[in-house]
Amino acid sequence: MNLSIEVQERSALRPNSRDGLGARANFIDAIKFLYRCAVADHLIPQGNNPTRELRRPAKQKSTRRPLTTAQLSEINEVAATTGIDPALTALIIRLHIETACRRGGSKALRPCDLDTKQLTVGLREKGNTVRDQPVSPSLMDALLAHERYRAPDHDRTAQLLRHRNGRPIPITYYDQIWKRIGRILPWVSTLGVTSHWLRYTTLTWVERNFGYAVAAAYAGHVQTSGRTGNTLTYVSATIEEVAAALVALTGEPYPLAAIGPQ
C-alpha cells in the first residue's frame, strides 16, 4: 500500500491529471497481476499473496466533455494551417471526428480497409473488435488521395497513414499533434484535449440526435452481459442507421443511409 501511494505522489503532473490516482490504480493492477501469475506458477502459496486485500482507489469522474462547434472549428483551423505537415494532421483530425475512431483504429487503417463501393473503412480497435464504419464521399476521396501520393507502391495490407517520405506514422505522432495544437490554442493544453475528446464529442452528438443504440453502433461498442447489453441484442442499430447519422453530421449524401424506420 505504501509503495502504491509513493507511485501516486511521484506520478507525472499533466493538465488533466487526477493527483496521481490513475498512476496508482495502474500500479495496483500491475502488481496484483504479477502476484496472481506467481501464485499460478506455484512460486508462492495463495496465502502468501500480499496483494489480496489491495484495492484500487475509487474511480474519479472523467473531466472529458464534448467540445463545442467553435472549439472544433479552432482545432480544424490550426490543424490545417500549421506545422510541417498540415495535410496529414487535418486528415487525421477529420477521420477521428467523422468516424469517432480511437487512435489505435486510425493508425491500424490499411489501404485494403477502404471500401469505395460501400463507402466504409474497416476499423480494427481494442478488444480485437472489427467493424465497417461509414465515411463521407469526400473523406474517402481524401484517404485515397493520401494513399496515392504517399504510398503508391506499398503493400495494400500495410499502414495507410504516412509521412511525406512514405514512412508510417508512429503512435507518438498523435501526442505530437496535440502538443503543437496546445501551444497555439492554450485551452487545448489546459483541458488536456486528445484524440479521444473528438470521439467523445461525436458520440455525444449522435446519442443526442439519434439515440443510444445508434451511438453504441457508431462507437463500435461490443455488447456486454449486463441489462443494457441484453437490450441492445434486440435493438442494436444497423449500418444504415449509422450512415444516416453520418449524413446528418457531414451534410453529404451516402448510399446506405436509412431514410426512416425500416
Automatic annotation (TrEMBL):
The keyword Repressor does not apply. Residues 46-66 are annotated as: Disordered. The keyword DNA-binding applies. InterPro entries: DNA_brk_join_enz (IPR011010), Integrase-like_cat_sf (IPR013762), Tyrosine_recombinase_XerCD (IPR050090). Keywords: DNA recombination, DNA-binding. Belongs to the 'phage' integrase family. This is Site-specific integrase. It comes from Amycolatopsis rubida.
